[in-house]
Amino acid sequence: MTARVCVARIGAAHGLRGEVRLWTFTEDPMSVTRYGPLSTKDGARQLEVAHARTARDHLIARDRLPATDEGEYYHADLIGLAAVDAAGTPLGTVAAIHNFGAGDIIEIAPAHGPTLMLPFTDAVVPVVDLAGGRVVIEMPGEIEGEEPDFDPPGVR
Predict the structure, then answer these.
(1) With contact defined as beta carbons under 8 Å apart, do 120 and 104 qualify?
(2) Do both 15 and 58 map to the same domain?
(3) What single DSSP character describes residue 45?
């Protein structure tokens, strides 16, 4: 095994665009952007800093992600794409992709009004067209099932 030198510590996520806090142990903190691929302590994962900017006592950095295969994409690639219905009518833009533990959710920000939070499934998002800069949204219908067995607040 070759000797290794710890040049940085990766901290918590920063923001919504895949950035992380990075504490460097180098004389010039920005030099980590020029080292090429870095590896985790156990050597199981390699990372390359694609972009970094200074913060108070650390850097804000983004990984250089590997290229995707045909038909594949990263969630970050979807942010800012136009969201349209099957007829091409604009619904808004993709604001975020969330996962609260029960599957991915796509957040659509319309020109006016509150955002739409929809399941990010093949049925609701049948088309992701990166080259065309859009996603096609099939609005889900009502959920079939029993009526709730409680009265909503303020209803009697």
Answers:
(1) yes
(2) yes
(3) -
* Final residue of a structural domain among 43, 63, 83: 63
Co-location of 79 and 52 in the same domain: no
Going 77 to 72 to 61 to 98, the CA torsion angle's sign is positive
Domain interval for residue 39: 8-63
Number of domains in the chain: 2
* CA atoms of 77 and 128, how far apart (whole Å): 10
CA-CA-CA-CA dihedral for 80, 83, 88, 90, to nearest 10:
-90
Residue type, 91: L
Q: Mark 27-40 as b/e (b = at least 16 C-beta within 10 Å).
A: eebeebbeeeebee
Beta strands at 59-63 and 19-24: parallel, antiparallel or unpaired = antiparallel
Going from the first residue of the chain to its last (156 residues), give the mean pLDDT of each consecutive group of 10, the final group possibly shorter.
81 76 91 86 81 90 79 86 95 91 92 93 94 94 57 55
